[in-house]
Amino acid sequence: MSVYDYTPMWAGAHYDPAPAGGEVTRLDLYTTPERNGPVVASAAPAVHLRAGVYRFDVLTVPPGRYWGAVTFTPNSSGQSVRDTSVRLDLPLGQGLVGSPEAVADALGVPLPLTSPQRSRYEEEIRNAQADVAAYLNRPSLVPRATTLRGVTPRWTDALDDIDAWPVHLDDIAEVVSCRPNSDGTYDVDLLVGLNGAQEESVVRYVVAHAAESIRQRQDQGAGAGRRVSSVSAEGQSISYDAAPAAGQAGALPTIDSLSRLRRLVFEPLSRPPRAPWPYSSSRRRWR
């Protein structure tokens, strides 16, 4: 079973129907982008996790790409609407920032994937994630789930705000859900650490990294910075196109694009800092 967190889309914007008395009712999955064939799997009802986020428990289906349609009512007096912006590469929750299907799209490989292709692409995704995690000074791009038990919030009007809880963490933290106890305290579920799958820049880089690693192995004779553009019918001649330079339209993303997500590392001083002159006992005057 996979867990899918859905953000409703209505009138061209992200929208939470709960404050207006609406609800998210159903998710249907199809094998075609037209969404007019038989329903492969359904999930209902959705659980309201926090403002604007609803969770579906999706039944186990064969690995692959599925197109979804979510039914919800925007408000208490409105009619049901159907959001067809959902596309899922299942299974989810495997610790991968990107999907093998996304790598296949970057390579121009048709879907569905074979088992050897899927295994190979997953391995390249993990390699790319390891490189990104090292650059960002993080142990992983997958957050760690933890639970705070018996805590009292600082305020109760925004319990999905991490600052509402008396917790001190040296990393990114997100409130997943909270449950009230009989004594007035709460049990709070948190995700601690960078959730790479929710960062579009991380997903794009990891997928591009994995696809380029595979492409370079396939085109080892092409040389750096070139792409195969055409091959003769007999396979005796190959034409190449130059790859766009960094910063140009169509260029691969560079790892510098992730610099804003780097985790700062603080090292303790080996000795107390010396006060500046003239307050220090040292005779040296700092200029």
TrEMBL record:
Organism lineage: Bacteria, Bacillati, Actinomycetota, Actinomycetes, Kitasatosporales
Superkingdom to which the source organism belongs: Bacteria
Identification of the protein by name: Uncharacterized protein
Organism: Streptomyces mashuensis
